[in-house]
Amino acid sequence: MKRDVKIPTPDGDARAYVFTPNQGRGPWPAVILFMDAPAIRPALFDMAERLAQADYYVLVPDLFWRAGHYQRPDIVKMRAGDKDAIANFQKLRASTSAEKQVIDTKACLDFLSKQPDAKADKVGVTGYCMGGAIALRAAGSFPDRVAAAASFHGGGMATDDPSSPHLLAPKIKAKVLVAGADQDAHYDEKENERLKKALADAGVDADVSIWKGHLHGWVPSDMPVHNPEGAERHWSELLKLFDETLKR
User: Fold this and answer.
1) pLDDT in tens, 195-242
2) Whole-number Å distance between alpha carbons of 104 and 211
3) Domain count across the chain
4) 3-state class (DSSP) for residue 1
5) How far is it, in rounded angstroms, from Cα 118 to Cα 102?
6) How many CA atoms lie within 13 A of 57 on its CB side?
7) What are the phi and psi torsion angles at 160 (to 5°)?
8) HEC-encoded secondary structure of 24-93
């Protein structure tokens, strides 16, 4: 079951969406699903719905909410070099940042704490594409709240940027799952090893790898590189992670 919600933040009310199981009664373990760059859309809602029907309270924040009501990025046109599509995407990406993502994550956690149907003392997070880095950043910024963090075909997770999530590894208490995309300019073998080492050195319980044959964006069903077999593997490993950390 889906409902639209508003989440108070210091910058205003953020758009977000809640999904809960169709059967049974809460409270259910809480999960935040961080969107990919193509933003809020039916394919993302389908993913949140599937997660909810596995008996989770799922919150999906619109990370581009500061841009107002916007036209969803058109990835196909962007790849074809369409200037208007590229400009629209750049505007949306400029509306968020590492600092704003932490603000929004705190607001989401505060919101979950007030929901009687959500078990929010320990929360799971999962992210895709740009959301992958946000999931790790959430785990490092709120270690006492985030018990499990997953990133699928994420990018920018272990870079030279001062806000790179891997620098938060010493603070992370969550169990971590990172599945990088193959042949991904946003996350290559070198970056994968850098992230793996940072988490290992910090003593984080983490599974970090690149899934060969899976390209950037393989999970959502509407992406040109969607890989059905890989998407099902993602579901299997994600639910295992959440079940082990949030349902015990």
Assistant:
1) 999 999 999 999 999 999 999 999 999 999 999 999 999 999 999 999
2) 30
3) 1
4) coil
5) 21
6) 24
7) -85, -5
8) CCCCEEEEEEECCCCCCCHHHHHHHHHHHCCCCEEEEECCCHHHCCCCCCCHHHHHCCCHHHHHHHHHHH
Dmax (CA) for the chain in angstroms is: 50
Provide the domain limits for residue 68.
2-246
Cα 91 to Cα 93: distance, rounded to the nearest angstrom: 6
Q: Which residues contact 73 (CB under 8 A, 6 or more apart)?
A: 37, 38, 39, 85, 88, 89, 92
Looking up tokens 């992370």 gives: 172
Q: What is the DSSP letter of 135?
A: H
- The pLDDT score that the predictor gives to residue 71 is 87
pTM of the model: 0.96
Whole-angstrom Cα distance, residue 192 to residue 180? 8
Q: Residue 28 is part of a domain; what is its CATH number?
A: 3.40.50.1820
Q: Token pair of 116, please?
A: 């009687």
Mean pLDDT of 184-201: 97
Which residues are 14's β-sheet partners?
7
| pLDDT tens digits along 30-64 | 999 999 999 999 999 999 999 999 999 999 999 99
Query: How crowded is residue 169: how many other Cβ atoms within 10 Å of its Cβ?
Result: 22
- Amino acid identity for residue 112 in this structure: L
Q: In this structure, what are the phi and psi dihedrals at residue 231, rounded to the nearest 5 degrees? A: -65, -40
Distances (CA, A) of 124 to 36, 121, 140, 143: 17, 10, 13, 11
Record the tokens describing residue 229, joined without a space: 């077999």
